[in-house]
Amino acid sequence: MSKEAILGAIRRGLKRGPLPADQRAMLEGRLATHPRHLIPARSRVARPEQIALFIRNVEKEFGSVARVPNFAAIPQAVADYLAAQNLPARFAMAPHPELKRIKWADHPMLEVEIREGQPTDLVSLQHGYAGVAETGTLMLPSEAGRPTTLNLLPDTEMVVLRASRIVGAYEEAWDLLREERRDKLTGGFMPRNIMWVTGPSRSADIEQTLELGAHGPRALHILLVDDDPAAKA
Fold it and tell me: Where is the signal peptide, in residue numbers (predicted)?
């Protein structure tokens, strides 16, 4: 069933016809201009402080961050983290081009499986699209190179994120997505799914007792690639 058919069925159910021209123009104008919400002042700082703010907020929400100088340093950083957490050296990795270009074969102790996530996975390595400094949040849109299952099924999620992809506010992350993604068929920019991840999964629904791993990974580790000269203090 097409989008127009679905919307038409909803209108008929509400006993309402097509929108008047003035209302339609108003709604289309709002969608086209992307009005800003309030942006917290704490994110309006220099680049080094934005990166520091992102890291502080990740750690405040029970995540961890390791800064690496480049992509070549990622395998050793992964091995160090897995060893420190007493985790196996085997993990499922997103089939993103930047991750696949890493010379994993130079580190034979690591067992890399390039695929989607599975319920039995203990560890995953995801590619981060953007980070939001104001809350320490990762933006993870779904696509072939970033399977959503890697964000949900493994017990521990590692995410590679470029420092140059950290922005101050949520609105700026949306700006990146609108600028870089454009569907040839519809002209839209939205992927099937976008996950906003702030620390590991947790819940305090039962007796206000915090439980990590309630709805997804119980541990989140970010490998932050220092690729932005302006972000270095």
Answer: none
Residue 18: name the closest of 27, 35, 185 by CA.
27
Note whether 109 and 142 are within 8 A (CB). no
Q: Within this chain, do residues 164 and 55 fall inside the same structural domain, yes or no?
A: yes
> Are 125 and 196 in the same domain?
yes
Tens of pLDDT, residue by residue over 136-188, are 999 999 999 999 999 999 999 999 999 999 999 999 999 999 888 877 666 67
Looking up residue 164, the CATH number of its domain turns out to be 3.40.50.10420
pTM, full prediction: 0.85
Instruction: Judge if 29 and 99 occupy the same domain.
Output: no
